[in-house]
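<goal> How does this chain fold?
<body> The protein record starts here
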Amino acid sequence: MTGTEAEPQPQPQSRPQSQQEAVRPRRWRAWLLEGLSEQTARHPGPHGTPPAEHKGHRWWRVMCLTGVDYFSTLGYQPGIAALAAGLLSPLATLVLIALTLLGALPVYRRVAKESPHGEGSIAMLERLLPWWAGKLFVLVLLGFAATDFMITITLSAADASAHVVENPFTPHWLDGENVWITLVLIAALAAVFLKGFREAIGVAVVLVGCYLTLNLVVILASAWQILSHPAHIGDWTDALAAGHSSPLAMIGVALLVFPKLALGMSGFETGVAVMPQVRGDATDTYEKPAGRIRDTRKLLTTAALIMSCLLLLSSLATTILIPQKEFESGGSANGRALAYLAHEHLGEAFGTVYDVSTIAILWFAGASALAGLLNLVPRYLPRYGMAPEWTRAVRPLVLVFLTIAVFITVWFNASVDDQSGAYATGVLVLMLSASFASTVAARHTGHRFAMYGFATITAVMAYTLVTNVVERPDGIKIASLFILGILLTSFASRVHRAFELRAVDVTFDEVAARLIDEAAGAGPLRVIANDPDEHSAAEYRAKEYRQREETHIPDGRPVLFLEVFVQDSSDFTADLAVHGVEEHGVQKLRVAGPVVPNTIAAVLMELRDRTGRIPHAYFTWTEGHPVSHLLRFLVFGEGETAPVTREVLRRAEPDPERRPRVHVG
């Protein structure tokens, strides 16, 4: 080898193919499970909760955030209204506006006050029902909320695809491909969230500003057409007179059909969901965010007034200027009434700009809804122990919601009209729950006038919901599927997670700490699990004697009685406060928790960490069938305590040498 020749470099050893194949699933799993549920409420989407150091945004900017959901309904609402009410669409829209300003707006102003941290009316109702009834009620409401948000995604994408197909510059080979276009839009939406969706209030402000400006231009151009050709108004009024015997008959028909127009109220739940984004005042505290509440009420009121004006003007313009046959399925105005007017009266170039703006805001409305789902589901289910392990991450949830959206799109054939019933059902159920919760809140605070007002709104919402469900049962069918899915997965998760430690924090009061330290001075702690009946000295002496005899507690060693009192077995986690008591000649540790075995296990683990020694716990076998004991444990938090406590400890502490000892006699 010459001096100019390079030294041979050692070649890196390649991994065997089997090892490479094993690494890939681990990397895939790590990527998929990135972002646990504790962080999901801070997921950086349109409805994400900002971090503590975040100061929030001005209320009008946050209004644009909720506006991508609320204002985007202008893309399809006028067409749906014309299809449902025909020539009476403006009158039916007036009824809807009255319900919006006199019903929904006061209700959600109250919700903003009662639930200022974005929980919405579901959190208000959660406090009304105790034990498992409250949890089941919340799960049902979550099913309707999921219906609302999921149909927002699919319906908005379907309407966006309609604007794509009907644009004159769209390639002819896309004609009739609404389903595939919708699926592509939904897939793109999911891809954005899988990649990581950054805060988008700035984008929302631009989208909403452009979209509202373009809609105003279209409405003004339509008004000019109507005013410059008064015959249009005459033709409309003549057709109304020919179809209805009197103005009272017209009002009656409008009252009957307005429930079909309920989509025009779809943004209120979103409005309270984004409350954490509102800046408020510098003096606001978590307990009393007065500035945030005030500014959120400004947000809700301003959005409702803007939307009410646009709904009425757009309904008048589309009803007077567009032939009724064009609103029907397959017609040029079906699902895109204002876009039809934009192309018809302002030219294809402006119409295309309007289409692009509409497609963008409808697609972003889907992003807003998906972010709402990612915030809403982890807000409740993990707290109930009803979220499977994979729901602790954002990306698996996105894939689940993507699958559901694909199924709904194919089922409804990407039809805006066919999905509107399901959308309205979800919206109306949430509004009904909000009005009922406001009624109860007003009653509790002694505001009788407000209570009667909210009760009246509740009755109107109930009528609207029932009418919608009777005429268009697809919504309740979809909601039932969501509810059934949530219930099954939630209870399966609760059973699967039943043997977790489940204590958030364990603290000892002064007396308990003294008793523990004194007993630890004589060696490892000896703890007798006790379920007292008489709370008498004789009972405690008999219990101690029996345990010493059956489980061979060393003579002379002090013992501590541990007593757990179940408060609400439907709760999954709790902070445990252990109190020391000396009475009847014995030393006792008392603690309240949601379930007996897991609470005992948590206290034993804390005793080990406090004393530095492995504690010993002594139990008595319980008579009865093991299946009945299992059911009692799952529902009532009791049952056969000893084996469950041991299993909880086994899962919590994998090292047998450091695991608290369980003795059963």
Observations:
- DSSP finds 23 helices and seven strands in the chain.
- Strands lie at 503-508, 526-529, 560-566, 574-583, 586-593, 616-619, 661-664.
